């Protein structure tokens, strides 16, 4: 019985982590969605414990049905959420519904298990000689302690298995389905093995039919996961998907009609628009290169496009690229369309690639006195849409970047879209100033999207992908206060941004990220 409790607890936590991970992937803002999932689920667990009172008189069959329902709902939750994102363009309502349903079912387990474990203890009493009432109470208390111990240890194992085993081996959808199958089998084995003689023939057939149906649904769905992913990917990106790779960090997708520069999506979010990426990367790199630029550091930019612009300067002696995801670099090195776009930048002998978190790498570099300083640091990082992303736009991050700069060095930061998110743009500027930088702000206008029906900017597109195409890009060019004069940022395709920021803009820090305010 404790083994079954252990397995069911592990499965319950996997469902919870699946919801948090998929919500962060589909909608961003991991703190908000993790808070919603956890708070709704804990509330629902209390509600489920109250509702389970009606099943206590039939605890064995009730537990079997609850586990079958939990296996079906939890196992299919990830697939339904992804389908809602792909075909409807929204997943927040299904997220709350599944958090509520899974929480109710997990909460119903505890009172039913308490009843069953007490029933087992009463059975053992007469066999052992029917000890005194005090001894029986002591045994019951010990059994309950064992129950909670098995539950908590199972939760620990489930929490560790999800990121280190299930996600890398099976992916989000299949891991949820496999967890549901294990959950259903564990519940059925417990009920039939220990309490089968307490069940009527009708109850036995009911449990067999329900569990058999659940396992059949989960197995059939698992066989169709690959087809489902392809269909959902077409719904999100269109029919012109060229490459779709699940790395250990994210999903990398290249899409676009044959013969056209590809668009790059990371975890469903548009990162590079092939038809006008040159506008972005030239505006990002060239203003910072006006001055000494023998040694350049590129933070992010695993697609190699910012690197291409840096390597266009013949007097660049060495470039270090710090990219977290090796999968992005691997695609940038091997995909024919992307290598044409980045001009095989990674084949240049001046390039050194480091696979690490940019914050961690800068911290280690700042602590190592032998680390050479850089003339230019190019921060080509995703927008600060989550807590993990916000740390790369924090005052502490820019303080570490300043320690990696040479005395006359410059730092350039991609600061989001000024027209769509002006507060984010000005918060980047305020944060750099708080870190001791002198700054100049500028922007570049994006080109209108081409008339391809699949394209994210086309009226037929929807959801996050359509909103991922900005009308402009904002940048901040910075130098340590007074250490290097900042030259003009005006140039082809760029305009200086003048004027004071909006009132009340404060810098973003690790303990108080302000980009979501």
From TrEMBL:
The chain crosses the membrane at residues 33-52, 64-89, 95-117, 152-170, 176-196, 205-226. Residues 221-480 form the PABS domain. Residues 486-517 are annotated as: Disordered. Pfam families: Spermine_synth. Keywords: Cell membrane, Membrane, Polyamine biosynthesis, Spermidine biosynthesis, Transferase, Transmembrane, Transmembrane helix. It is a multi-pass membrane protein. GO terms for molecular function: spermidine synthase activity. The active site is at 380 (proton acceptor). Its EC number is 2.5.1.16. Spermidine binds at residues 281, 303. S-methyl-5'-thioadenosine binds at residues 250, 323, 357-358. It is found in: Cell membrane. It comes from the Bacteria. InterPro entries: MFS_trans_sf, PABS, PABS_CS, SAM-dependent_MTases_sf, Spermi_synthase. Its main location: membrane. Pathway: Amine and polyamine biosynthesis; spermidine biosynthesis; spermidine from putrescine: step 1/1. It catalyses: S-adenosyl 3-(methylsulfanyl)propylamine + putrescine = S-methyl-5'-thioadenosine + spermidine + H(+). CDD domains: AdoMet_MTases. SUPFAM superfamilies: MFS general substrate transporter (SSF103473), S-adenosyl-L-methionine-dependent methyltransferases (SSF53335). The keyword ATP-binding does not apply. Belongs to the spermidine/spermine synthase family. Homodimer or homotetramer. Catalyzes the irreversible transfer of a propylamine group from the amino donor S-adenosylmethioninamine (decarboxy-AdoMet) to putrescine (1,4-diaminobutane) to yield spermidine. PANTHER family: THERMOSPERMINE SYNTHASE ACAULIS5. This is Polyamine aminopropyltransferase. It comes from Streptomyces lichenis. The lineage of its organism: Bacteria, Bacillati, Actinomycetota, Actinomycetes, Kitasatosporales. The gene is speE.
């Amino acid at each position: 019985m404790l083994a079954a409790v252990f397995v069911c607890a592990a499965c319950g936590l996997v469902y919870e982590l699946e919801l948090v991970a998929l919500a962060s992937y589909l909608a961003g803002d991991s703190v908000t969605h993790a808070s919603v999932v956890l708070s709704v689920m804990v509330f629902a667990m209390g509600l489920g414990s109250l509702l389970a009172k009606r099943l206590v008189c039939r605890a064995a069959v009730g537990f079997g049905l609850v586990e079958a329902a939990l296996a079906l709902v939890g196992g299919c939750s990830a697939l339904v959420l992804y389908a809602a994102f792909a075909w409807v363009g929204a997943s927040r309502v299904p997220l709350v519904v599944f958090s509520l349903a899974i929480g109710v079912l997990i909460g119903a387990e505890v009172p039913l298990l308490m009843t069953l474990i007490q029933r087992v203890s009463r059975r053992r009493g007469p066999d052992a000689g029917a000890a005194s009432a005090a001894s029986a109470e002591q045994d019951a208390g010990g059994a309950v302690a064992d129950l909670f111990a098995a539950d908590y240890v199972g939760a620990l194992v489930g929490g560790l298995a999800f990121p280190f085993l299930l996600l890398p081996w099976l992916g989000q959808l299949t891991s949820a389905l496999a967890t549901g199958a294990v959950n259903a089998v564990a519940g059925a084995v417990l009920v039939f093995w220990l309490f089968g003689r307490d069940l009527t023939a009708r109850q036995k057939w009911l449990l067999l039919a329900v569990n058999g149906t659940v396992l059949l649904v989960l197995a059939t769905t698992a066989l169709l996961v690959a087809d489902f992913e392809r269909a959902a990917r077409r719904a999100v990106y269109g029919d012109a998907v060229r490459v779709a790779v699940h790395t250990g960090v994210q999903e990398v997708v290249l899409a676009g009609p044959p013969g056209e520069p590809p668009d790059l999506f990371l975890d469903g979010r548009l990162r590079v628009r092939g038809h006008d990426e040159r506008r972005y990367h030239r505006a990002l790199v060239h203003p910072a290169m006006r001055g000494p630029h023998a040694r350049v550091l590129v933070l992010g930019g695993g697609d190699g496009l910012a690197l291409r612009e840096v390597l266009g300067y013949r007097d660049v002696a060495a470039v270090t690229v710090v990219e977290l995801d090796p999968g992005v670099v691997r695609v940038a090195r091997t995909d024919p369309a992307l290598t044409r776009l980045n001009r095989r930048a990674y084949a240049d002998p001046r390039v050194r690639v480091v696979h690490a978190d940019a914050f961690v790498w800068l911290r280690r570099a700042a602590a190592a006195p032998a680390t050479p300083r850089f003339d230019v640091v190019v921060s080509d990082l995703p927008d600060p849409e989550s807590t993990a992303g916000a740390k790369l736009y924090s005052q502490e991050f820019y303080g570490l970047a300043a320690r990696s700069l040479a005395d006359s060095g410059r730092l350039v930061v991609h600061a989001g879209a000024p027209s769509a998110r002006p507060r984010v743009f000005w918060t980047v500027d305020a944060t750099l100033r708080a870190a001791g930088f002198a700054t100049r702000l500028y922007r570049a206008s994006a080109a209108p999207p081409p008339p391809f029906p699949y394209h994210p900017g086309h009226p037929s597109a929807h959801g996050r992908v359509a909103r991922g195409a900005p009308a402009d890009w904002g940048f901040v060019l910075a130098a340590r206060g007074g250490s290097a004069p900042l030259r003009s940022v005006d140039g082809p395709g760029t305009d200086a941004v003048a004027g004071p920021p909006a009132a009340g803009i404060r810098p973003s820090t690790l303990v108080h990220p302000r980009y979501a305010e």
